[in-house]
Design brief:
alpha+beta; Jelly Rolls; transmembrane helix; 44% helix; 30% strand; Transmembrane emp24 domain-containing protein bai; four-stranded antiparallel beta sheet
């Protein structure tokens, strides 16, 4: 029974945690910059691990910023390492790699490997378990609890966004309706004025009585 519960927990964490972990490898052209952007919710722990293929004379700078330009992590001559930060607001976060080559040197393409995690996957539950002296099953239950809270927050945010979009849609429909009524009134008024004007004109020309 216990092994079945553990298996169920592992399967659930594996299925739900896939979207929280992102690994990517891409080529970085010499003298150019490559940036990766992602929208992340508020109060979310984000960790990243990177590795840059070394090339003689070439250097790669790493910078992590938000949409307001705040630098969350910066590393000159980045070869391999890790970074961790906690988001302060729902925002678009950017990870940029900039290749620098000495003047007069012909640069080579470098492979960059980046693995990012956020939310539950970014936390070290093994260290937490050792500090609190938790059993393996208790650690997995704690991980599952945090993951459930993260999912609830995501659903709450999506509900809030849905309410905002519904309010915007209703407001737009109301404005379109009022504009249509105003346009209709203008057309009716213009048509009435044209009829009266033409009638007066024809009477002046004695074409009608």
């Amino acid at each position: 029974m216990l092994s079945g519960v553990c298996s169920l927990l592992w399967c659930t964490l594996l299925l739900l945690g896939v979207s929280l972990c992102h690994g990517i490898m891409f080529p970085l052209q010499p003298g150019q910059q490559k940036c990766l952007r992602e929208e992340i919710h508020k109060d979310v722990l984000v960790s990243g691990e990177y590795e840059v293929q070394e090339s003689a004379g070439q250097k790669v700078d790493l910078k992590v910023t938000d949409s307001k330009g705040h630098i969350l992590y910066s590393k000159d001559d980045a070869v391999a390492g890790k970074f961790v930060f906690n988001t302060e607001d729902y925002d678009v976060y950017e990870i940029c790699f900039l290749s620098r080559i000495p003047q007069g040197q012909r640069g080579l393409m470098q492979e960059v490997t980046l693995n990012t995690k956020h939310g539950v996957e970014a936390k070290s539950y093994e260290a937490l378990g050792e500090a609190a002296k938790l059993k393996p099953l208790e650690i997995e239950l704690k991980r599952l609890e945090d993951l459930s809270e993260s999912i609830v927050k995501d659903f709450a945010y999506m509900r809030h966004r849905e309410e905002e979009m519904r309010d915007t849609n209703e407001s737009t429909n109301s404005r379109v309706l009022y504009f249509s009524l105003f346009s209709l009134c203008c057309l009716i008024g213009l048509a009435t004025w044209q009829v009266l004007y033409l009638r007066k004109f024809f009477k002046a020309k004695k074409l009608i009585e």
